[in-house]
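User: quick one, fold this
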Amino acid sequence: MDIVFIVVALLNLAFVLGLLLNLAGMLTWVERKQAAVMSNRIGANRSYIPIPVGRDPDGAGGFKWSERFTLIGLFHTINDGAKMLFKEDFTPPFVDKAVFNIAVWFSAVPVLITFAVVPFGGPFQPGVMMSEIFSMVGLVGIAGTLHDFFGDGVYNLQLANLNVGLLFVFAIGSTGIFSAALAGWASNNKFSLMGALRGSAQMISYEVFMGMSILGLLVIYGTVDMNEIAQMQNETWFGVIPKWGVLLQPHMFFAFMTALMAENKRVPFDMPEAESELVAGYFTEYTGMKMGLFMMTEFLEIAVIAGIVVTLFFGAYHVPGVVAATDGWYWAQHPDLMPVNAVFGATVPHALVVVMRLASFLLKLVFFCWLQVLIRWTLPKFRYDQVMRLGWKYMLPLSIVNLVITALVVTLLEG
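Assistant:
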């Protein structure tokens, strides 16, 4: 296998893992601060670092310490992680130990794997980009060496460029059901079992209409390749309006977002946990880092949901009007145009385009993470029968009708 391909793949992997794990940690702080802001409270502010500000006026020779440096509560995230690591990992004697332990990994691993097909920066040339960056700071020798190593090859800022990307998302995402089901059954606890039954029914139900809600968009795009879908959203109407998925199927954006949030099992869809009824639902018997991994998975899912929504409905990594010479799909559809950037012209550095696209994707990702937390602290929890009724009696029929109408419209326009 090409050594350059391996290096680029490892760099992509490091970026994705760093992004998801750090973002999940930050979201624990966002959750607290968002709840505090909406309740007119201060929020997490107890963890701090003392900073010396001068000599002790008592004459003892020591430093006088400031009251606290809280960094707006961000130290709580560090403390939470440390606390989880050092808490006792107690396994009750009445559980099925093998299944009890493996259920945790069915929670976190599929979420991380799902993000592998999400394109987060588009096609790029690492050799050209590195050469531009190091030449800019005067390190011409290093720039030439890196360019010789990477060459002019074009790679994707994406872990796995699969032609069945969206099907991969559904296939791997559906394995999350095993986590709730196995954890609840293996715990040998009535509260855990009830949470597992609720979680299995809810996740299976909403996966049905989640797939149906996105079919209308797939009929328009004609592919399930996430990278191609992202490239297609760089098209425009009248040279101004971007052809983002949310403008093609705005009603289905709300349906798809609802289904994804129900899959995450957070308020208003937190029936599998329902602390006021089931203690902690299917992970009631878990302690220490195992419980922490279950809780962290929810925040990881927030980031993954945001990434999928951004890719399908909000232009992925694209900045409206910015077209790069590496956008193969775009130039294949427009062979009569010159391969230059639509905004900056031919002189724009390739590194700048990559940075702009990464920043665009990250800003959209952060916005939809915040939106999910906002919804969580805005809407009241549904009853279980309301959750099921919403999915089967309203969302599923709406998705089917949308699919039929979309297929008819596309057929007529193509004809």
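User: anything notable?
Assistant: The CA atoms of residues 204 and 362 lie 30 Å apart.
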